[in-house]
Structure formats: structure tokens, C-alpha cells
Amino acid sequence: xxxxxxxxxxxxxxxxxxxxxxxxxxxxxxxxxxxxxxxxxxxxxxxxxxxxxxxxxxxxxxxxxxxxxxxxxxxxxxxxxxxxxxxxxxxxxxxxxxxxxxxxxxxxxxxxxxxxxxxxxxxxxxxxxxxxxxxxxxxxxxxxxxxxxxxxxxxxxxxxxxxxxxxxxxxxxxxxxxxxxxxxxxxxxxxxxxxxxxxxxxxxxxxxxxxxxxxxxxxxxxxxxxxxxxxxxxxxxxxxxxxxxxxxxxxxxxxxxxxxxxxxxx
Amino acid sequence: xxxxxxxxxxxxxxxxxxxxxxxxxxxxxxxxxxxxxxxxxxxxxxxxxxxxxxxxxxxxxxxxxxxxxxxxxxxxxxxxxxxxxxxxxxxxxxxxxxxxxxxxxxxxxxxxxxxxxxxxxxxxxxxxxxxxxxxxxxxxxxxxxxxxxxxxxxxxxxxxxxxxxxxxxxxxxxxxxxxxxxxxxxxxxxxxxxxxxxxxxxxxxxxxxxxxxxxxxxxxxxxxxxxxxxxxxxxxxxxxxxxxxxxxxxxxxxxxxxxxxxxxxxxxxxxxxxxxxxxxxxxxxxxxxxxxxxxxxxxxxxxxxxxxxxxxxxxxxxxxxxxxxxxxxxxxxxxxxxxxxxxxxxxxxxxxxxxxxxxxxxxxxxxxxxxxxxxxxxxxxxxxxxxxxxxxxxxxxxxxxxxxxxxxxxxxxxxxxxxxxxxxxxxxxxxxxxxxxxxxxxxxxxxxxxxxxxxxxxxxxxxxxxxxxxxxxxxxxxxxxxxxxxxxxxxxxxxxxxxxxxxxxxxxxxxxxxxxxxxxxxxx
Lengths: 266, 524
Prior knowledge:
The complex is a heterodimer.
Chain A: H1 2-19, H2 21-24, H3 57-92, H4 94-109, H5 112-123, H6 127-154, H7 157-164, H8 169-205, H9 217-226, H10 236-263
Helix pairs in contact in A: 1-10, 3-4, 3-6, 3-8, 4-6, 5-6, 6-8, 8-9, 8-10, 9-10
Chain B: H1 2-44, E1 45-50, H2 65-71, E2 79-84, E3 89-94, E4 97-102, E5 107-112, H3 126-139, H4 141-146, E6 156-161, E7 166-171, H5 178-182, H6 192-197, E8 215-221, E9 225-230, E10 243-248, H7 252-260, E11 266-268, H8 272-280, E12 284-298, H9 306-315, H10 318-325, E13 330-332, H11 354-363, E14 371-376, H12 380-395, E15 400-405, H13 407-416, E16 422-425, H14 432-437, H15 453-464, H16 468-485, E17 488-500, E18 504-505, E19 508-510, E20 514-516, E21 521-522
Helix pairs in contact in B: 9-11, 15-16
């Protein structure tokens, strides 16, 4: 119970913080480069110091973090929606399954960095590349799980009863299969969050993701590595933030899973 | 009872003391002997941390700085590029050739030194030279540029061998920079049978990496290290170092840490911030003006108004970039090639004048679109520079969007597709003439698609011009024209920064980031 309360508090505080960034710091993440103030250590003026181009690390960290979270959310939503749709269709229709199954198995084994690189070289660079690459990576996971749930539900006696009472296929999908699938998708989404986040970070780290000067956690880590010996204040904050976020998300995921078990019987 | 108790306690105490002494002294001896072993060891072997793996074992296919650094210890060319640290200029001196003489405009007679041996024991002959130059002109990406003219035609018509040591190079038309181009390691000399064996393929076996240089290549482990061994029959004096181990350490911080802890003796490619720190810790920092000229090329097809291009040059505070971002480890550009080349013209620098930049843009009718600035992720400093430029340009009203990309994709986009407005890169030519030909119409490395018939004509004339003075005058005019027409934002010449641990003496550094190990001695 304590954990559950703590999760709610932490998440709401985080949302509040990220919503109010612009009010909280006097700087902007794309502030003009100021070469006279580069690599300054933490001080009252810049609470976490400045980066290699003289910009406020705290401001960039908050913006980068918000962007990373938003990108992860977006790609999870994308893959959850598409994955569920295809998962349910594939459970109900053999031909769809025959086409989609090997395709998703293939997608599942290709490393996301390669997927991202291929997209980047064909479509171009930017945020959409990251979102699509992460979504493609998560898609097979959502597809598999939703399909399994749909298959299990489809053979339940109450579905047979509904069909006998004249319910249409659409009605069955929406009211019985869909509802059951949604519960699983909710938990899976939370569990996918750390993966999506770390993927976004690694793509930005190697320079395939968010383009400068827009800050991202991965980009800040990459910069921090270069200056770790002379200015460790650049790498520490993003590293701590990543660590803490993934820890919190894990606890939250566990709580939601517990909550779900308490509410459902199957 | 009490007596035995205190007795046994005393015995235990004595045992503990003896044990402590034995362990302590043995630890001391091990430590001392390992230090002794290390001293002996390091006197024999020089360990150098390099930033990238070599891309090939075949010097004719070499393109990267690391390729030439490593294979340049194994191979030699007819001439040698050297550096005069006092005058801060490059020099080109006779190396494998004893003497040479132009017979007329198109025929050059060369006499080789006698008693030079390859690593396989064979003597160097003019036939080896002929085969090597022909292979380089045919297959080497750099050799093709050095030994062909602007239209892709070979500059050498034929090489006529007279005897073991004498040969004539017959040119299709006069080409004065020939000697400087023959000094490049891409025109390295290898045995004739190796050159002929690999006429169509790449040298891929360590056994066939045979040159006349001071070291033999004995071991190559991809991604790990390259090991060179002293060549005892080297034609000059015997090298002092018995073996050289190049360790591939790609991360700059790790490389700096490796030299700081004594894991390696020399580390190349030290970042400016690290250089300051290492110096404070008592390491020796070698810092020389390099040939790498960092520019932001401006696609002149897309930005055809010269006033806009000049405005961009006035918009950037180069001094701030050099002294703040580069920590002073660079030189503000004053021409379109590095000042270390004889013939470099000291031109008037573009001052930092945002007001003038805004006026020029206004005169040109403004620039109503966002420009794309592409930069390769291979050099993190370049990505940093991109953001600095973006900031300066936005201050004068030019919006720039940065696109970072992986190096191969970058090369394709910039040099093949020319699909960019601005692109950051650093050409590193080996001779002044070569550096100026980047700006010739249709040249392979002319990414901005700059074209000026006057420049082309002057370059043709310079290639024919026998008088050094007159040639420098032509070079100067080319530099002035290109400088003022701004097919790039001219930025800075990057310094070469190499760190050595205390005890390494006599290291010389060429501005191409090549180490000259001839005089190196190791102490401690």
C-alpha cells in the first residue's frame, strides 16, 4: 500500500515538475551558445553547472527528460494501438496470422539500432525516426501478448454464449476480447516504459536520435562521457535521472500488476 | 594456568608478527620486481594509443590518418615530408632517391640510393619503384588524385628503367608539384613481385606487407592492436626502439587515462580539455599546428549570392571559437590552406562583425529559409562546432537546422549528392597544390560545387610554372580569389595534440598527426 501511494505521489510530482519547467528556470534549453561560460561547475546561478557550450545543465536536463518521456510514451501508444489491432485480427483470422507472424518474428530479432539506422538513412533524421524505431521494436511484443489473450478469451464459454445470443463479431471483439486485452496492454505498457526510455537514450547517445541543440538524456550522456574527466557535473545528473526513473517505473509496474490481479480472476 | 595462557598468547602474537613481516616483504619484493620487469620491458617496447583501427593492410588503399601512421613506419616513399619546427613549415626532402634532375619539362631522371633492402631481404631496384608507382596510380584513392590531372588523366606517361638504380619519369605535360606528390605515403615503394601479385586485389596478408621502413609489421589483431618489430637491416641507422605496439583505444578519455597511468607511452588525438589537465599532472604535451583545416562548406549552387556567404564569415567569432571552445589548441584561419605549407598566403582575416553581416544579408535581399547544416558524428568537436555556428548565424538572422549523421552517410550526402546548405568537415591535404585543387571546378573533394574558370586556369599555370617565386605568386592569387568568394565559412586549423608520459624523449610530430620515432628514447 505504501508503495502504491508513493508511486502516485512521485508520478504526480514528476508530471507537475515537467509541466512547469519553463516557469522554474530562467534559462531556455536552446539558449544562445555562450563560450565564455562553458563547463562551469555547479553554482547558485547554475545549480547543475553549464555544459560544453555554456548552457544551463539543469534546464537542458529537464527539457531532455520531458522529451525522452514524451517520445517513449508516444512510441508505446503507437505500438500498443497497432500491436493490439493486428494481434486481435491475427487471432481471429488465419490468413492474417500467416502473413504477420514471420514478419514480426523477424522484426523482433533485428536490433533496434539497425532499424533506426535504416529508417534514418531512408526517411531522414529527427524525432519521428526515434519514435518509429522504438515503436517497431515494441510492436512484436504487444502483438504476441494481445494475440495470446485474444486466443484464450475466444474459446471461453461466455463468448460461445454471447454468440448463441446473436452478438455480432464486432460486439464480441469490442466488449469481451478488447476489454480483456486492454488490461494486459496497460500493464505491458508500463513494463515497456523502461525499455522504450533506454532505447531512446541509446539512439540519441549514438547520434541517431534527437538532433542538437534540442537536449536529450542520451545526447547529454554522450557529451558527459567526453568531458567526464574535466567536468563530471555534466554526466552525473542525466545518469541519476535515468537510474531513478527506471527504478520508479519498475515499482509502479509491479503495483499495477498487483492491482490488476486483485481485480480480475483469470 | 594463567602462565600457559599468557604464554600461548605471546606465541600467537609472535606468529602474527612473523606472518606480517613475511607477507609485507614478499609484497614489497613482488612490487619491486614487477617494477623492474616493467622498466626492462618498456625500454624495449614503445606503446602508442591510437584513436581508430587501421582500415587496411594495403598502403595503396590507405586513407585514414591511422593507416598512414602505422603503415608509414613500414613503408617509405621516394621523398619524405618533414617538418621544420622552427620555421613551422613543411619540407620535402630526398629519401629513397640519392639524386634527381629534370632533363627537360616532361622528363625527370632519378637515381636511387644503393644498398637499401626490403624487409624480405631483397635489394630495392628501379623496377620496384616503377611497379609501385604504377600500382598506386591505378588503385590508390589518394594516389589517383595525386598522380592524375584535373580531368582524370594520368600525369605520368611512362617510367623508363635504365639500370638497377636509375630511371626516368616521363610526364604527359609539365607538372612541377611532382616531387611533393611522390613524397606522399600513398605512393609508397614495395617490392615488384608484391605489387604485381596484388595487381587487382588488396594486400591482405601480414607476410606481404613488405617495405623498406624501419619497422616490420608482425602482428595485427583487428580492433585490438598492431605490432611492429625493428628491421635490423634498415638502410639508415638502426631504430632505437625494438618494437612498437599500437593499441587501438577509441574513447578519447580512456586514451588520456591510459597515458596518464603509464599503460601506454604515447597517446595521440588528445582533446584540448584533457591536454590542459594532463599537462598539470606532469605529462608532456606536444602541440603543433596541423594541416586539418576545419571549415563549414557552403553549397554555392544553393546559396549563390556571394554577399550571403561573406555575411556568414563575418557572423562568426573565430577568436572565441579558437580560444574558448578549442582552448587555444587551434589557429584562426587566414587562408584556405594551413600556414605550414610553403607558399601559404597570409590573408586578411574575416573579423567578427555581426552588424556588417546583417547589412550584407539585407543588401542581398535576405534569406527566407532555414538552412541545413550537416555534420558527421565521427568528430564530437564538429558537432559542438555545429551548435556554435548555429548560434552565431541565428544572431544575424540566419536560421539553421543541424543534421548529425554517421560518417559514411555524411560523406555520401556531402561529396556525392551535394545535398546540403552547410557542411562541417576538415580537409587535410599533403601539399599546397593538392590543397588548392579542392576548389577546382568538378574536383572530387569540391563539395560546395564551387567553380571559377580563373582559379582553374591559375592552377593549370602553377602546375607548369618552373620558377618557385612565380609559382607562389599564382598560388597566392588562387588563395585570394577563393577566400573572398567564400565557398565556405573559413574557421580554424586544428592543432595536433599528442601526450607522452615522462621519460619519453625525442619524439617529433608531423602536422598530419604522424609520429616520427627515429630519435625517440625511453627512460624509466
